[in-house]
Amino acid sequence: MSILIDNIGELVTNDQAQGEGLLGIRRDVAVVVEGDRIAWIGPSGQKPAADARIDAQQRAVLPGFVDSHAHLVFAGDRAAEFGARMAGEPYTGGGIRTTMAATRAASDDELLGNASRLVDEARRQGTTTIEIKSGYGLNVADEARSLRLAAKLTTETTFLGAHVVPPGSDPDAYVDLVKGDMLDACAPYAKWADVFCDRGAFDGDQTRAILEAAARKGLQLRVHANQLVAGPGVQLAVELDAASADHCTHVSEADVAALAGSNTVATLLPGAEFSTRSPYPDARRLLDAGVTVALATDCNPGSSYTSSMPFCIALAVRDMRMTPAEAVHAATAGGARALRRDDIGRLRPGARADLTVLDAPSHIHLAYRPGVPLISTVLHNGVPR
Ligand code: NIG
Ligand code: FE
């Protein structure tokens, strides 16, 4: 089955060999998809025949968004906590334990239903790849269950047993459990391991011990780093060759320099600062130092209950001073780098046919028209939704 998408006004390829600027923009082109891959990109006048046709009507076509950071396996919500925060309460991460209790009490069907509803919600907003973490089970059975369910929805599954120490547990004993029986039970379903390295969660030594144990089990690494306070998370991520250091809200000069000279992406999660009414990370400082930046939603019931990459792009542009091109790049190619994937995040022959047709003539409209549903068609693995 082949599909011709023609009459494209602006094609964001993210491939500077193909087009102009950071986004590798091409104009008046057509794309042919065959099966789950891009087969051809070229001038509209030379388009080959195909089984089906999508007329882009001179609108913009982008790679599907790559949301490289989301916590979708949970039950319940924390609307009351959000309301209290907007009335002046601080965010501490303490509500993770509220969601833990609701998650443990939920059936598999409830957890899977909730997570798949969020994946569908994200897809309608242009997300074609989403990472899903555990982290609300916080015991062996419920962490393993969370990952088994997550693996039904994505290949990008992340073991986050080290989200917080559950109530009543001794911290040292819990770290031993995470590195031991919990890791053994979760590793079959997890591609990645992550630790919340921050005040009130895990310190540098604990984080290192858990990540090193996970790496020995064959998991790749990512770190929740420097969200609430400055700390060792970013430097540990770089030292352990983690694919991504996520949040990066409180970073030092040394942190920025370490990221700039590394293979570790800084994943910024502006939905979390929005929903916790916190200062945004300094994206300009990271970008200007040459750090690779990704944008992701952090979708979770506590600190960022949004599945919308367009919303995060709008925040990044308006409040973090990223250009529209930088934000779109970070939400697509940046996310792909944060997942160490080269088959997504770019549009070129051989790439996965994951793309969106915007109901707008350019990528700039994603930030220029915030809150407006601009995603008209989404192809995932070559299949229109
Ligand atoms: O990324 N920071 C740690 N974890 C989540 C918050 C989870 C929660 O509050 O439930 C985050 O913001
Ligand atoms: Fe998170």
TrEMBL record:
Gene Ontology CC: cytoplasm
Instruction: Please list the residues that bind Zn(2+).
Output: 69, 71, 224, 298
Mostly located where?
Answer: cytoplasm
Q: In which pathway does it act?
A: Amino-acid degradation; L-histidine degradation into L-glutamate; N-formimidoyl-L-glutamate from L-histidine: step 3/3
Mind listing the UniProt keywords for this protein, alphabetically?
A: Cytoplasm, Histidine metabolism, Hydrolase, Iron, Metal-binding, Zinc
Q: Which reaction does it catalyse?
A: 4-imidazolone-5-propanoate + H2O = N-formimidoyl-L-glutamate
Which cofactors does it use? Answer: Zn(2+); Fe(3+)
E.C. number: 3.5.2.7
The record, for Gene3D superfamilies, names: Metal-dependent hydrolases, Urease, subunit C, domain 1
UniProt binding sites for N-formimidoyl-L-glutamate: 136, 300, 302
Any idea where the Amidohydrolase-related domain is? 61-363
The record ties this protein, via Pfam families, to: Amidohydro_1
What molecular functions are annotated in GO for this chain?
Answer: imidazolonepropionase activity; iron ion binding; zinc ion binding
Which GO terms fall under biological process for this protein? L-histidine catabolic process to glutamate and formamide; L-histidine catabolic process to glutamate and formate
Q: Does the keyword Iron apply?
A: yes
Q: What does this protein do?
A: Catalyzes the hydrolytic cleavage of the carbon-nitrogen bond in imidazolone-5-propanoate to yield N-formimidoyl-L-glutamate. It is the third step in the universal histidine degradation pathway.
Classification via PANTHER family: IMIDAZOLONEPROPIONASE (PTHR42752), IMIDAZOLONEPROPIONASE-RELATED (PTHR42752:SF1)
Question: What's the family?
Answer: Belongs to the metallo-dependent hydrolases superfamily. HutI family.
| Protein name, per record | Imidazolonepropionase
Q: Which organism is it from?
A: Paractinoplanes abujensis
